Amino acid sequence: MSVKVVVLGAAGRMGKALIRCIMEEKVQGLELVGAVDLWDLPDLGTDAGLMAGTKKAGLSLITNLEEVGPDADVIVDFSSHFGTAGNAPRIAEWGTAWVIGTTGLNEEELAAIDATAEKAAVVLSGNMSLGINLLCNLVEAGARALKGKGYDIEVLERHHNMKKDSPSGTALMLGRAATDGYGWDLKDVQQDGRTGLPGERPEKEIGFHSIRGGDIVGDHTVMLAGMGELLELSHRATSRDVFAIGALQAAAWAAGKEAKLYSMKDVLGL
């Protein structure tokens, strides 16, 4: 039997990529049963497949998640931080598996997701690609090996000019991997950019630097800078499909799993 998937945030860049990848069977065993987004979008009522630039899906873009969510096996959510948190209580009530790629979530919104994970399987990740999740492992291992040896860590990220949050969710994943290796708490050491006269860089700090321009899909680099040498670990996405395919692999994996908060490392077995 196929896994019934609802795409939330279906009219966005990632939503369209998800629909296209489902319709073109980039991940086997999935069936699109719902496409949901905001009420004021021009594509409302149009066929979801045609909206995404692929073949007809036989269902239209709608605004009400309640029409399709309860009967789905999994909801794949790339909507917005307030939309994701706002839907959490309903998804908890239905017990539908939930794959969340939404970024920019604050502490209160993350708490709503945690509460849902007590009643449904939830996969939460700032980036769904295999490469980025492998990079997180490499960054953590590198930081652990260099701990106490005087290496400063900085995270640089570049994205398209339509991205709303900064630093990116992926940059924060990488920063968290670095602090895990160093034995620090990211909240205590995060520095978002620098301006003016901030003074000498403190030892216990991780800087985040965000670039926005054009149609950059996503570039991330973690710098480990020591005296006399610089180590850079990087990942470049050249197609949004890599994120969509990862999210759909997570959807296939999460369907039927026990209620718990999972990460892409769980999905990918890293």
TrEMBL record:
Keywords: Amino-acid biosynthesis, Cytoplasm, Diaminopimelate biosynthesis, Lysine biosynthesis, NAD, NADP, Oxidoreductase. It catalyses: (S)-2,3,4,5-tetrahydrodipicolinate + NADP(+) + H2O = (2S,4S)-4-hydroxy-2,3,4,5-tetrahydrodipicolinate + NADPH + H(+); (S)-2,3,4,5-tetrahydrodipicolinate + NAD(+) + H2O = (2S,4S)-4-hydroxy-2,3,4,5-tetrahydrodipicolinate + NADH + H(+). The active site is at H159, K163. Residues 3-128 form the Dihydrodipicolinate reductase N-terminal domain. It comes from the Bacteria. GO terms for cellular component: cytosol. (S)-2,3,4,5-tetrahydrodipicolinate binds at H160, G169, T170. NAD(+) binds at G9, A10, A11, G12, R13, M14, D37, G101, T102, T103, S125, G126, N127, M128. Pfam families: DapB_C, DapB_N. Its main location: cytoplasm. It is found in: Cytoplasm. Pathway: Amino-acid biosynthesis; L-lysine biosynthesis via DAP pathway; (S)-tetrahydrodipicolinate from L-aspartate: step 4/4. GO terms for molecular function: 4-hydroxy-tetrahydrodipicolinate reductase; NAD binding; NADP binding; oxidoreductase activity, acting on CH or CH2 groups, NAD or NADP as acceptor. Its EC number is 1.17.1.8. Gene3D superfamilies: Dihydrodipicolinate Reductase, domain 2, NAD(P)-binding Rossmann-like Domain. Residues 131-268 form the Dihydrodipicolinate reductase C-terminal domain. Coiled coil: none annotated. One of its GO terms (biological process) is diaminopimelate biosynthetic process. Transmembrane segments: none annotated. Belongs to the DapB family. Catalyzes the conversion of 4-hydroxy-tetrahydrodipicolinate (HTPA) to tetrahydrodipicolinate. PANTHER family: 4-HYDROXY-TETRAHYDRODIPICOLINATE REDUCTASE 1, CHLOROPLASTIC-RELATED, DIHYDRODIPICOLINATE REDUCTASE. Homotetramer. This is 4-hydroxy-tetrahydrodipicolinate reductase. It comes from Pontiella sulfatireligans. The lineage of its organism: Bacteria, Pseudomonadati, Kiritimatiellota, Kiritimatiellia, Kiritimatiellales.
